[in-house]
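Recap quiz, item 2
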Amino acid sequence: MTTKRGSKGANGTKRMLDVLGALRERISRHELPPGSKLLEAELSAEFSVSRACIRDVFGVLSQRGLIRRIPQRGAVVERLDLSQVFEVYEVREALEGLCARLATIKMAPESWQDLVDLFGKPIEDDIERGDLEAYIVKLELLRRRTIEGAHNPVLADMIDNIQDRTRAIIRRIIVLPGRARIGLEEHRAVLRAMRQGDADAAEAAKRANIRSGAAYLKRYESFVL
Amino acid sequence: MTTKRGSKGANGTKRMLDVLGALRERISRHELPPGSKLLEAELSAEFSVSRACIRDVFGVLSQRGLIRRIPQRGAVVERLDLSQVFEVYEVREALEGLCARLATIKMAPESWQDLVDLFGKPIEDDIERGDLEAYIVKLELLRRRTIEGAHNPVLADMIDNIQDRTRAIIRRIIVLPGRARIGLEEHRAVLRAMRQGDADAAEAAKRANIRSGAAYLKRYESFVL
DNA sequence: AATAACATTCTTGCCAACATGATTGTTGAT
DNA sequence: ATCAACAATCATGTTGGCAAGAATGTTATT
């Protein structure tokens, strides 16, 4: 008396994408912190999908640099050491600088006005109140809108990949002494340039913003990592 | 009387990487041209590996944008339409510009002298003779050396990914009327800046070189795609 | 000839079983 | 207590089998 074998029907790809998204989220938020062990059989049971599906997900996650697969031992969430963080930041600077440039070129200057407004008094209030979660929500909106405005899916995917790897670190940088206020001024400079349709200035400002974050990280590295 | 089942032992990962490398090569050289169908069972037989191994490879290839998996129908080699080519070129400009900058910063200026020499008379001879294969070998050497000099594995992987997608197009651009000579001058400008340790100039020259290639593509698009 | 209904084919997605090899645990000898 | 030898455990990598659903092919009807 053996159980039926075979496919669970359509939507295999959807299931795989759901699992992938869930694991990406957990890894990037450090809910699955670096060093965590991931087992095919456990995840297969947890998500009610086949082991084959999990292996698919692992393939993607490893290609995105989020996990390392260890033959016969499972997979482990990658840990970025300090030098790797700076390597990722170098790439982040180039890609997000390009993103700001493309968004400025491809979108009408007026389309950024709502964000310019949002980054005025409302976000000042967030920082005054110490409500960094609200601040971060606004940063994420800016980031999303810039990516959308760039109209370049290849770039978007790469930036998302970088984001998956650095999200937890970025949060740690934002809470460092004085960082939120400095970061805000930098974001405003980016938005000003975009609002004026100045692609060179937007790119330069965004690159400066990323470098500034990296410098903050370097200054406080013993507190962050 | 059933055949034995089970693992073929160690080296599963190595087998997978070998197959992955082989398919990346075929796809990037258009030996498997865009639109080609890839079937798990066929490749499994061809490479003498399990279907699961091929599925692993497919996962990586699809994440790298080289193939698209179609549920129940196999996978197909992605075709870049013109707008996608330009999207990739935008990203390529940013990444290779960064690469030139980092290589200039991180390597001693003298370390580029052999390449400066190589891009003197020897490569002139290549172009005079119409020996574009030899020219391309030298370009590949420059590219490799720049990536190595940048000492950033994240960046290297991304640039390789872009290269996989654009390699065949790049070859088509190089043979366009007058392109090789113009390209050579641009590469020389990059090398000059690197030799002088001028990272800003190196980045700008490399970006200009990529943009120039894209402009050539736009001018001759009906001949290339 | 065109269309609808049905059958067949094709390939993936899934399940179960098992081989492999690395790691951990247990036992016996010194 | 320490070390070596052996056994057990663990998790992946592979194989064979099969369900599912989409596409293609065949047949019947108008």
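The longest strand of chain A covers residues 67-70.
Residues 2-9, 12-13, 15-16, 49-53, 56, 71-73 of chain A lie near DNA strand C (CB under 10 Å from a C1').
End of item.
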